[in-house]
Amino acid sequence: MKKKLAWMAAMTAAAAMTFAMVSAAEETETDGAAVQEEAAAGNADAVQIGSLKGPTSMGIVSLMQKAENGETNIPYEFTMVTAADELLGSVISGDIDIAMVPANVAGVLYNKTEGGVSVIDINTLGVLYVVECGDSIQSIADLAGRTVYMTGKGQTPDYTIQYLLEQNGLGTDDVTLEYKSEPTEVVSVLAEDDTAIGLLPQPFVTAAMVQNENLKIALDLTEEWEKVQGEGGSSLVTGVTIARNEFLEENSDAVQDFLAEHEDSAAWTNENPEEAAELIAAQGIVAKAPIAQKAIPFCNITCIKGEEMKTALEGYLQVLFDMEPASVGGQLPAEDFYYLG
């Protein structure tokens, strides 16, 4: 009973943080002001794309370069930030047309805007890994009694690890989740303490392993998710691409162009890791190209559309909803959330 109460309290607090993040973006004009100013200063006719530093942006570096060279079907302007809440205000205000955000945040935003956004593709599957020095962690159960340093409180990493703990008979009274504001802070802890355990997304996993040759991947949370879901279960979805419905309805051809070019760009990144790594470093997504090149195979960069997208994401959001309804905005998104083209 104590485990269940502790788990529910932790999930409620995490969900409250997600709600607060979206509400703050909706109610405060200054939220995302830098993003809005940058978008407004550019080409008014260009499709405004917002993305997060990390695998989502790694998958569109080819598209970024083509847009800069005037080689795309339509003009694009890109705004890249480090936190999802920097984008949300600009989506709500209409200054960003298409945004790449965490999967659960898309659900919350759909509910907060009363169906004002649609998900048009999945851009990233599982990117989360448990890392350690040594061999003490072979399964989720081995985390009992340990402290896990991580980021993403109230976001995808938080919901993922808490779900996997619960499915393995554990809770936050068994495993201490120590939250940091940035992945680099987790990397610093791991560098200073060789007994520490970290939960990190790519490409920070690779960066940490380069800094500390004794550090290794202990658990792939995508694999752990598949173990508890079983055959035919949901997929672990990290990032999705959403579009404002007002923009989508008025510019359906532009959205179709974007989807085609996004798919090509994501495939190019996976198929050309050395060249992609150079662009990724040049965009400041990852500091050094060799790290980006090593990370790409572990980032699960993709572009999943249509019914396949709906099936994968719908099942994932159902899992989150069953854990804590507020994690997806209080209710599951309706059918019109899924843009099937």
Largest sheet descriptor: 6 strands, mixed
| Strands, count | 11
Radius of gyration: 19 Å
Shape: globular
CATH topology of the largest domain: D-Maltodextrin-Binding Protein, domain 2
Strand order of the largest sheet: 2-1-3-10-4-11
Number of helices: 15
Order of helices and strands: HHEHHEHEHEEEHEHEHEHEHHHHEH
Pairing-aware structural class of the strands and helices? alpha/beta
CATH class of the largest domain: Alpha Beta
Cα(first) to Cα(last) distance is 46 Å
Mean pLDDT: 87
Can you say what the CATH homologous superfamily of the largest domain is? Periplasmic binding protein-like II
Low-confidence runs of at least 5 consecutive residues = 1-41
In the residues, how many domains can be counted?
A: 2
Helix content: 40-55%
Approximate strand percentage = 15-25%
The CATH architecture assignment of the largest domain turns out to be 3-Layer(aba) Sandwich
Walk me through what this model shows:
By secondary structure, the chain is of the alpha/beta class. The chain folds into two domains: 214 residues, D-Maltodextrin-Binding Protein, domain 2, CATH 3.40.190; 103 residues, 3-Layer(aba) Sandwich (D-Maltodextrin-Binding Protein, domain 2). It contains 15 helices and eleven strands. Helix 2 crosses helix 5. The N and C termini lie far apart (46 Å).
Features:
341 residues; alpha/beta; D-Maltodextrin-Binding Protein, domain 2; six-stranded mixed beta sheet; five-stranded mixed beta sheet; 11 strands; 49% helix; globular; disordered N terminus
